[in-house]
């Protein structure tokens, strides 16, 4: 990890975090509705898109939460991917035998076991964090395939797939949803866009989605407002200092990494147990663990930020699924608008180089939008990945990374 | 100075541990571990398995070297996977299009492959150096994106042709192929083995006998110390990443120029991830990487024969994962044991056989 830019920590931060988040949400909705109006692509803000975005964003959100817990305790967790894979198998197995809630519990348990393995390797044996993570990804994939072969194949006749399992019921806020549907159909500027986006978030919501969304403020509360959380974070900032104050660093790291695995396993479960998702399917995780990690880094190692990151990636994924190439082009147009806002901000702050970079990016994106009618269909499924890279490139400079992240720590040794 | 015990004991321990663990897994699934291991051993002597294992090992060796160059500079080039596939598809297209005399054609294809591999590593390298973006995440994203790029380039609308049911690139003319080494009954060894050996030697030479290699290692050990010695960490990171990408570009070449001559949608994937594991197993030493590559290839090949006697082939994957994890744990344990032994030895020697007391720095 690079050192954070020193100017970022010294600059006065007048706006509180939640207000900044709300401000960005308003900007995002403004940009999207403008883009959907100007490009004549109502799908950018349709309720279908936001509903798909929520479903696809959930695993990423949970993986990002898992990343948050581990990294705040100073442990890099590349193994989220493998833990998610374990979670998918566990939840399918549990749900097949005992219904959705057992499935969810089993998914969490399997992820947690992966997390514990990571903790043993990293905390007890001081293995390099990324090495252990890569090994866990290998192991998670192998174990899930092996178990699927052993357990699912006799039932489903296919070693790559589980038998169909029960899914979570969904609930809608009926009156609100109907009213928003009316608003959305009227196709008024901005108003219908907001209605469409909101409607997707209140229609056909599963309990798992509610739990996952509640876990964001819960994580904030535990990590930033309790004694336990302070200790956990101190292990990620300076384990030597924490130890000298009587904090059991090993124990806190173990708890954090195990919790991290549990979140990742839950993320795996959300791939299996939601309506519209597949049952256990080989390779269904497909890099979501890594994207979750990227969302967490994008969110500056904070719960609110990672929610924004997960929403972004879920949205990009949902949009390309429901709208295809034309919708992604419209998104490019939206990105140009967003860059225009950013450039103006940077000009006000007198960051000339950043503004110039923004202008260059906007020109490139606009050129892509202007010269293409259709994007190559082979590349469209990778929209979230492109978005991840671009967003990290733009966002990474103001990061406040936990100081002791990825460092090996042994009790009684100065690092 | 090489300490043979610390170098060889951990991999041996790891393999034994992996065998034990997979025995447990086999017993649970109701298969006999002894039968399984006997089959794995016996398959080496059947038909052309031995040679095909070595052939696969050559591919893994290249991937391992690519990953190891990154590791030397503390850069985790997880993107070997993406880089080699991008390079393979570009080299196959360019190689199929080019008309050159025999040796030149091969050299041109290899250069194109190395260049494209480095090119695909350039973006994460630049982002890491100038924007502080973790190379782990960007390269993983690029690994996924490469699927799309390969599909896009092999599409008949771009450069692909349809061979039966399979989309692939245009076939490379005989002048662009590397002849194999025929071993009679046992099969044909990839001629690329010579180039791979040379690369391994070059890697060793670069690290241990050149100034650049020294700077690379120094910078990987401690950026600040190297910077004090006038070595720019930025430059070294860029160099390591691009070199790693260039070597990664060669990973698919033994198969492309020695067997397939086309790059198809169905070409095998995952060599890049194997390369990481192999480099870890071999502790970034060229000979160690060779050993790791052969072991990995052997496990992969034995998966096939296990399947034929009704044992789930995933047991090979589990063994591979266990070996990687336990080998790093074993290195740490042996290191700690050595450290403790050393301290005891020094403590005894310093006081004529008497252990040091606490005031002199001895154990409590």
UniProtKB/TrEMBL annotation, chain B:
Top-rank taxon, per record: Bacteria
Protein name as annotated: ABC transporter permease
Any one Pfam family match given in the protein's UniProt record, by short name: BPD_transp_2
Positions in coiled-coil regions: none
Keywords (A to Z) from UniProt: Cell membrane, Membrane, Transmembrane, Transmembrane helix
Transmembrane annotation, as ranges: 52-71, 83-100, 106-127, 136-154, 189-207, 238-257
Annotated InterPro entries: ABC_transp_permease
Keyword S-adenosyl-L-methionine (UniProt): no
Entry's localization field: Cell membrane
């Amino acid at each position: 990890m690079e050192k954070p830019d020193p100017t970022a920590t010294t600059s006065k931060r007048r706006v509180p975090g939640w207000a900044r988040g709300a401000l960005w949400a308003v900007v995002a909705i403004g940009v999207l509705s403008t883009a959907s109006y100007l490009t004549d692509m109502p799908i950018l803000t349709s309720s279908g898109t936001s509903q798909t975005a929520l479903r696809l964003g959930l695993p990423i959100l949970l993986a990002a939460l898992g990343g948050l817990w581990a990294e705040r305790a100073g442990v890099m967790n590349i193994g989220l991917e493998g833990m998610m894979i374990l979670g998918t198998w566990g939840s399918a197995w549990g749900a097949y035998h005992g219904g959705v809630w057992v499935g969810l519990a089993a998914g969490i348990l399997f992820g947690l076991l992966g997390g514990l393995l990571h903790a043993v390797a990293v905390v007890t044996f001081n293995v390099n964090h990324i090495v252990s993570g890569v090994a866990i990804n290998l192991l998670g994939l192998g174990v899930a395939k092996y178990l699927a072969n052993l357990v699912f194949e006799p039932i489903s006749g296919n070693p790559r797939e589980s038998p169909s399992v029960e899914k979570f019921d969904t609930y809608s806020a009926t009156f609100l949803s109907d009213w928003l549907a009316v608003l959305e159909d009227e196709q008024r500027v901005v108003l219908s866009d907001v209605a469409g986006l909101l409607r997707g978030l209140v229609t056909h919501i599963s309990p798992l989605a509610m739990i996952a969304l509640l876990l964001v403020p819960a994580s904030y509360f535990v990590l930033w407002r309790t004694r336990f959380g302070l200790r956990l974070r101190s292990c990620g900032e300076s384990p030597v200092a924490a130890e000298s104050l009587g904090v059991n660093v090993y124990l806190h790291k173990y708890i954090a990494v195990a919790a991290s695995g549990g979140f990742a396993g839950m993320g795996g479960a959300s791939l299996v147990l939601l309506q519209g998702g597949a049952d256990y399917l080989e390779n269904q995780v497909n890099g979501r663990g890594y994207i979750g990690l990227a969302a967490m880094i994008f969110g500056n190692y904070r719960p609110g930020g990672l929610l924004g990151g997960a929403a972004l990636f879920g949205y990009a994924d949902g949009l390309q699924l429901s709208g295809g190439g034309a919708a992604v082009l419209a998104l490019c147009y939206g990105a140009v608008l967003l860059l225009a806002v950013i450039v103006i901000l940077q000009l006000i702050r007198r960051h000339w180089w950043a503004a110039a970079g923004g202008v260059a990016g906007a020109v490139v994106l606009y050129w892509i939008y202007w010269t293409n009618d259709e994007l190559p269909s082979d590349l469209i499924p990778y929209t979230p990945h492109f978005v991840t890279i671009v967003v990290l490139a733009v966002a990474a400079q103001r990061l406040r990374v936990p100081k002791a992240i990825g460092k090996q720590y042994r009790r009684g040794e100065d690092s | 100075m090489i300490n043979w015990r610390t170098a060889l004991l951990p991999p041996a321990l790891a393999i034994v541990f992996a065998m034990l663990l997979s025995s447990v897994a086999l017993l649970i699934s109701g298969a006999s571990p002894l039968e399984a291991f006997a089959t794995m051993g016996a398959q080496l002597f059947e038909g052309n398995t031995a040679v095909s294992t070595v052939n696969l090992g050559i591919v893994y060796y290249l991937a391992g070297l690519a990953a190891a160059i990154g590791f030397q500079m503390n850069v985790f080039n997880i993107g070997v996977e993406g880089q080699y596939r991008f390079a393979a598809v570009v080299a196959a297209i360019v190689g199929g299009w080019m008309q050159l005399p025999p040796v030149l054609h091969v050299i041109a294809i290899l250069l194109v492959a190395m260049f494209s591999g480095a090119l695909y590593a350039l973006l994460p390298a630049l982002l890491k150096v100038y924007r502080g973006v973790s190379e782990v995440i960007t390269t993983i994203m690029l690994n996924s994106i490469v699927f799309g790029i390969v599909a896009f380039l092999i599409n008949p609308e771009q450069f692909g042709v349809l061979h039966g049911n399979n989309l692939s690139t245009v076939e490379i003319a005989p002048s662009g192929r590397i002849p194999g080494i025929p071993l009679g009954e046992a099969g044909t060894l990839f001629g690329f083995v010579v180039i791979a050996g040379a690369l391994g030697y070059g890697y060793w030479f670069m690290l241990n006998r050149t100034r650049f290699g020294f700077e690379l290692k120094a910078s990987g050990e401690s950026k600040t110390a190297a910077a004090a010695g006038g070595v720019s960490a930025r430059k070294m990171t860029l160099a390591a990443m691009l070199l790693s990408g260039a070597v990664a570009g060669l990973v698919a070449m033994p198969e492309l120029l020695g067997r397939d001559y086309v790059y198809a949608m169905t070409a095998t994937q995952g060599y890049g991830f194997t390369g990481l594991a192999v480099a870890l197993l071999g502790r970034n030493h060229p000979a160690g990487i060779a050993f790791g590559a052969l072991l990995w290839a052997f496990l992969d090949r034995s998966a096939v024969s296990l399947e034929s006697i009704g044992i789930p082939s995933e047991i090979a994957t589990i063994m591979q994962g266990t070996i990687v994890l336990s080998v790093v744990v074993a290195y740490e344990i042996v290191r700690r044991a050595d450290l403790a032994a050393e301290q005891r030895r020094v403590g005894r020697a310093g006081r004529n056989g008497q252990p040091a007391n606490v005031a002199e720095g001895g154990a409590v």
